[in-house]
Design brief:
This protein has 360 residues and is of the alpha/beta class. The protein contains 15 helices and 10 strands. Strand 4, helix 3 and strand 5 form a beta-alpha-beta unit. The longest helix has 18 residues.
Amino acid sequence: MKVLLIGDYSSFHFNLAVGLKMNGFEVDLLSSGDGFKHLARDMEIPKSRFKRFVFYRELIRNIVQYDVVQLIGDAALHSRPSITAVLLRAISKKVPVYLVAAGCDYYFWSAGRRRLNITLFDQVEKHGENSPTRVSDFLRNRIVLYYVKGVIGFNEYFEAYKGHRKCLDPIVLPFVLEESNLNSLNWADGPLIIFHGLQSHRKGFKGSYIIEAAFERLNKKYPAQVKCICAGDMSYTKYKSLLAEAHIIVDQTNCISYGINALLGMSMGKVVCGGTQDKAYYDRWLPLTGITEYPPIIPLKPDVDFIVEQIEKLLLDREKLIEISKNGRAFVEKYHDAKNVALMFMERWGIHKKSLVGGE
């Protein structure tokens, strides 16, 4: 069987593609590479409108080679609402199309704001970043939801979409575990390197303004004990090499849970800080996905004093850092292995392994 995955923003679809291949699928990943990140893909969405028109016309002609098409986010096709409607109408007549609810689309922004007690929405608006509240955002979202067969969400995104009639059971994030990711660091001596990955156009989204202020205070207060670094807007390959040198990753402050970036950090044996890690929400989410324990992530709030206090606690007990590091890697291995998560997607698509060639 063959799957077409369209769009990628955090290497989510790349990780899923690897997991599907491990389960006997053929997979094509079509994306723009997400700007400066230069994410891996098999086919690239053309930048110019004319080339995109020609590319999509050819894609529609050959879409029958796929058994499933999946979009990540409603803007995955990089097209105006009217073009999105034409494309999905043609594709969905021949192949079932699914949507992974990920990122700030119109539905998440409106429903999530009502249902989730998180600071993301206010922080984005406070710093004047793009929020999906335009008429075009509404139209694109409604068009995509009309044509897709089902919506697959995780954590906050599932919480926002769970009232929609097409919302399917939630999934967990897929991640490709590599032994080479697990690098050795000196935890006992020298300054702890603490890293936050910047995206200059999403500093409000991730809480970067607050994290930068906390880092400035920590660097001044503990010059011999910490080296806090903020850097970003770089290729994914370069980003991972920079991440490899860090002991502690400060991911984001405005959500409850964790994303691919946190999984990358934990898989590399880093201590990850991010999100409120609100146990009341996890008590609802975890049983739906088969996860039986809370993630070993240090909770954060969008508050400079709170972030500084959390890092100070870590500085007091370096032996505990080693334990958290090991627990994080084990958590990713146990619950997020891409091959196993791919089986969850197959279930949502109505595909069972025995239906695959050579399946059991």
